[in-house]
Amino acid sequence: MKPIGLAPIALLMAVCWASSSHAVETKDACIAASTDGQTLRVERRLLEARRKMLECAQPSCPEIVKAFCSRWLVEIEDQIPSLVVRVVDPSGAELSDAQLTIDGYAAKLAGPPVQVDPGTHELYAETSTGTRVSSEVSLEPGERAKLVVLRLPQPVVPAPALAPAAARAPAPPTPGERPPSHRVPTGAWILGGTAVVAFGTTAYFIYDAYRKLDALKGPAGCAPTCSDAQTAPGRAEVVAADVATGIGIATLGSAVAWALLAQLDSPVATRAAHFAVSPIAGGAFATLRVDR
């Protein structure tokens, strides 16, 4: 009998060792994928977790690992949310030519719902005319096909340009024309001061008249049988008070009228005015004349 050579035995041992080593590596990779998948699931990174569960659910993985990963894969699929994005113009008409990105990654407007991880996501769309719109949307685990409408803003209408400063400035007065003035004329102030003095004089005469007439009622007085000569001083004071009152009313009214005409830019305000007061029985008569 011929002895068996060492070469075939060495080759057989090498094949067995390689097969065993590959099996160990596959087993370790499957276990690592299942562990990583569960960690990503807890962190709510469901898309990555699904990829890991697909790795450990392969037929080459150990049966127990494959069974758990297959079950976890179904649970993760049920938790992955998705959204549907529509872009509309200000009137509500849907646009199909807009470019959409979700968290910076390109996405299609038309087509099935886009799957994303739970949490907040940034949506950005730009039309072919350069109009842009963005929004944030928050999704919970298991929230499917959530509709998000991105409405383009109304176009901004530019404000009308202002006329040049030179065009807005009032035209200068022509030669010989006096610019309008809104100040109270000096004559109106003088008439107002005259009215104040007249009313003060009225108060004095009334006080003095009552003082003189009251003196006639005292123990040394003649009331109620006083003669005209005895009551004449008091009656004169009353007449003087009436005259002063009439002057005050007339001058005050004239001052107010003159000031109002000046505020209305009336030509009367720029003309010379002449005021005169004439005493009459029981008061006074005042005249105001404006030169033409």
Explain this structure to me?
The chain contains six helices and ten strands. It has 292 residues and is an alpha+beta fold. Helix 1 (6-42) runs parallel beside helix 3 (63-79) and helix 2 runs antiparallel to helix 3. The chain is rod-shaped, with a radius of gyration of 54 Å.
Could you state the oligomeric state of the chains shown?
single chain
- Structural class, judged by helices and strands? alpha+beta
| Helix run count | 6
Task: State the shape.
Answer: rod-shaped
Q: Into which percent range does the helicity of residues fall? A: 40-55%
CA distance, first residue to last residue: 159 Å
Estimated share of beta-strand residues? 15-25%
Largest sheet: 4 strands, mixed
Number of strands: 10
- Could you give the order of the helices and strands? HHHEEEEEEEEHHHEE
Mean of the pLDDT scores? 76
What value does the Rg take, in angstroms?
A: 54 Å
Q: Would you identify the regions where 5 or more consecutive residues have pLDDT less than 50?
A: 1-19
Q: Which properties best describe this structure?
A:
292 residues; alpha+beta; 4-stranded mixed β-sheet; 4-stranded antiparallel β-sheet; 10 strands; 19% strand; rod-shaped; disordered N terminus
Give me the secondary-structure topology.
Layout: H1 6-42, H2 46-56, H3 63-79, E1 82-88, E2 94-95, E3 99-102, E4 105-107, E5 114-115, E6 119-126, E7 132-139, E8 146-151, H4 165-168, H5 186-215, H6 228-263, E9 273-280, E10 283-290
Parallel strand pairs: 1-8
Antiparallel strand pairs: 1-2, 1-5, 3-4, 3-6, 6-7, 9-10
